[in-house]
Amino acid sequence: MSDSDEKKSVGSILKGLMLQKVPNYANKFFYSLGFLTATSLLLIIITGFIMVFFGPFWWLTNGFGVYIRSVHLWATQAFILFMMLHLLIVFLTSGYKMPRRLTWVLGSLMLFLAFIEAEFGYALRGDFSSQWRTLQASDLYNGAALGHLINNLNYAQIYGIHIIFVPLLILGIFFLHYLMVRVRGIAKPYKKGIKYKIEKANHNILFIRGGVLAAVILLLALIFNSPMIAPTTIKDVSQQSPQLMASTLLQEMNRTSGTATYLDNIQPYNYDTREVYIIKPYESYITATGSKNDLTAFDELSASEQQTQIDNAAGYFANNGKINTGDNKNPDIPVVSTLVNMGKSGLYEGALVDENSKLNPTYVTRFLADTGVLDVKAEKLRITTDQYGMVREETDKLPPGAWWLAPIGFMDHTFLKNDDNQDRDGAEILGLLFLLLVAFPYIPWVNRIPEFIGADKLIWRGTKKKKYKETVEEKKKVKKKKVKKNS
After folding, report:
1. Are the beta carbons of 121 and 152 closer than 8 angstroms?
2. What domain count does the chain have?
3. pTM (predicted TM-score)
């Protein structure tokens, strides 16, 4: 096959995929939003594939990797923005009316999946924002009774969902959505008096707009990199505040930490904190070093005596008691001191990772949450929930954060402010709003709201309110041309 033949075949394929004849208003910018959404999605797929190929260390440390990560972030921002604008135009022009109701439903589902996919992406980025957001999102999932299905702290699970499961759903819905548009064409004005004509689709201007968008995304990623503030580690806590580390260990031992007493509709953290954070790491140390096992003396005590020892040890470290691994009348002090020293060297976090999985840092993240250091750091960075943290990045500079989650912040600051089940109720409200969005075309009277708004006049500007006759006349012209050709 020659180059010219190959170009023709590629051109014919593209021609077959795209609409050729459209209403004259369809060449306006408003009707390019779907194509711009697809352009953004293509950039997301390309950069996502590159990032998966090279891995987290590359996209966090390599200069070009940081740039690709930044393009991925900006493309995500554009993807959601243009999808929402596209949905808005369809709403204002009543483009969801029969026989396009299912097209609206598919678009709404895709928008919802985009929100979910973006949050999973934040969870995988590898910076402090990931660490903090995964912790906050876990409360949302747990409050919505989804924690037994989705553990947002499980990196391996979220990684699989983000790069395989949700993308396949989005792509499947996207192609089905476009197929319906391809078959039925661009939605016609619902008002009978709007004059328009069918003309050739201007593909050139469409690709120019897509190219400009891609160039803007690439430029923004170059100027405004995706921020990267190193995540907090247990090693950091042990070195900077050994007494805090010791006090937290004793809370885990006493089963009084935030993780041990986690209350919600479900219990995703139902492991024994004493077993996970004290016994197993300490036993791994004893096995490796052959040192004296001070836990043996503790285990021989009665429950009341154990409680007394824990309380005494907690008082000792609360009063800035030294980290002492030597002989002590209270066995808890050398045990905890040993674990603090393990933390300083990085061995303690390694032991927790080995207990669970190298790609499932649940134990590590929950322990850090119990220390309280994540809350303090997030507060300084102004990214806590009560600071509308979900709508900004780790700095107040560009790029923006998940601005589309602002409604959650609004609810948390207003009518859900004093709600003990804030996460659960917020999730339920969002779920109901989403269902309302999906069902909107099917709700009598409500689906006529855009007609009363009248914003379609701005979108169809340039058309005249006359009885439509062009389609019939054009059909007659086409028939005459065919007759002449045949003759």
Report:
1. no
2. 2
3. 0.86
